[in-house]
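Most newcomers find our protein records easier to grasp once they have seen one. Sequence and backbone structure share a record, each on its own labelled line. To make this concrete, we reproduce a full record directly below:
***
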Amino acid sequence: MRTRYYGFIGTVLCLSLGLVGCQTTAGSSGQAFSYKNMPVADGSAAAGEGNKVLFKGSPLALSGNGVKVGDSLRDVKVTQNDLTLVNIVETQGAGKVRIINIVPSLDTPVCEQQTHLLSEKNKGLDKMVELITVSVDTPFAQKRFAQEAKIANVTFLSDYRGGDFGKTHGLFLEGPHILTRAVMVVDKMNTIRHLQITPELTQLPDMEEAFQIARRLVTES
């Protein structure tokens, strides 16, 4: 009963966006994650009010005050797995390079693969930087996902309370009430050094590019 409840928000998001296959593949079977051949976005949308992304060609409006490369990461509270709040600027990796992986819902196939890429394909970066995933899934659902996917090197933070992280950075989709798909690299001084917002929600961001930029920032520091 509890597991079904924790997955409720993800199921609702799947239905509202018309997504299929909204379940993890690495769970109770204990098998390694099965990567699919998914398209990677070329280029980036702009954050904030007045800008749009597409879902299967249909436009969805972004809301909030958008950030861009060169801006500082903004003070806003997100929820940890134990339901305590933390300022996104002051996570456990503050003072280090951080990669912030932003997904609509972990219960969708593209979000799932994006998060596995962050965790498993970073080529040792997780020893030097903090890896973060932010979504509107409840903290309970995020914790369940991490346990079933056997992901222990990613900090999961929830924006379920009101989408404040998304709105504060211009990454919130008001209609379906989810975050847009993006990846952000933040340096030791909390300056955004890379931001890719996928123009089409069904496409992955270029995680390899984000890894390369993060690695360069670590090397330069």
User: Anything to note?
Assistant: DSSP finds six helices and eleven strands in the chain. Residues 1-16, 18-30 have pLDDT under 50 and may be disordered. The longest strand covers residues 58-63.
